[in-house]
Specification:
Distance between the termini: 11 Å
Shape: globular
Strand order of the largest sheet: 1-2-3-5-4
Radius of gyration: 17 Å
Largest sheet: 5 strands, mixed
Oligomer: single chain
Length: 220
């Protein structure tokens, strides 16, 4: 998944033994900003969870998350991909990490703090990225409605490369910086940043029971 989404990697770009070229790509990833506390409210006091519908997509989370997601949607609305992106997701929800559940009953993008607290263009591109995973899942399900889509059709290295290409197209359209474009292009060439086996993405059984969002290896 997914989901693009590499907001904390800049901090690890100086890891020992990492090739300098890859370190430079990692350094181009946006850093997450600290979410501001609500006026008059202690920082450690939880905010109220609420939901709104924007562009046909339900946004679920605390007020700062909803505001950040609205701003990201406003950027997506400027893209030629907007209708595809919003059709592929029915809910965007604040989560412990970022990933997509592409279930046809309720496709959900979960946005972790480092993703939605990053700059608005990066967050928007993460939504676009994971919408592509959901699109690929739906396309595979349409081809064989009686079968659970094989992971190679929508996730793993193959699916991740397609989602990164989609994200890169969006970033180019919205005139992202050359450094950011180079970063995503570098990931597209070798999208195994969650391990040699590819990308673990949250899923849902065909009987309708939800899987837990698997945050292992995800720091975004």
């Amino acid at each position: 998944m997914s989901a693009l989404l590499f907001a904390l990697w800049a901090a690890s770009s100086a890891r020992a033994g990492e090739p300098s070229a890859l370190a430079a790509l990692r350094a181009a990833a946006p850093a997450a900003a600290e979410a501001p506390a609500a006026p008059g409210r202690p920082r450690d006091e939880p905010l109220e969870i609420s939901a709104v519908v924007v562009d046909g997509v339900q946004i679920v989370g605390e007020a700062p998350f909803i505001a950040a997601t609205r701003a990201a949607f406003a950027l997506i609305e400027r893209s030629r991909l907007a209708s595809e992106v919003f059709a592929a997701l029915k809910r965007v929800e604040e989560g412990p990490c970022s990933g997509v559940d592409p279930s046809p009953r309720l496709p959900v993008f979960y946005a972790g703090g480092p993703t939605w607290q990053a700059d608005t263009l990066w967050y928007a591109s993460a939504v676009v990225h994971d919408s592509r995973h959901s699109q690929l899942y739906a396309e595979a399900l349409k081809r064989a409605p009686a079968l659970e889509p094989d992971e190679i059709e929508w996730e793993g290295v193959t699916g991740e490369r397609k989602a990164l290409a989609y994200q890169l197209s969006f970033l180019r359209e919205l005139k992202a910086s050359p450094e950011r474009l180079a970063y995503v292009a570098g990931l597209e060439k070798d999208p195994r940043y969650q391990g040699a086996e590819g990308v673990e993405v949250v899923g849902q059984r065909r009987d309708g029971t939800f899987h837990e969002l698997d945050c292992r290896g995800r720091n975004w």
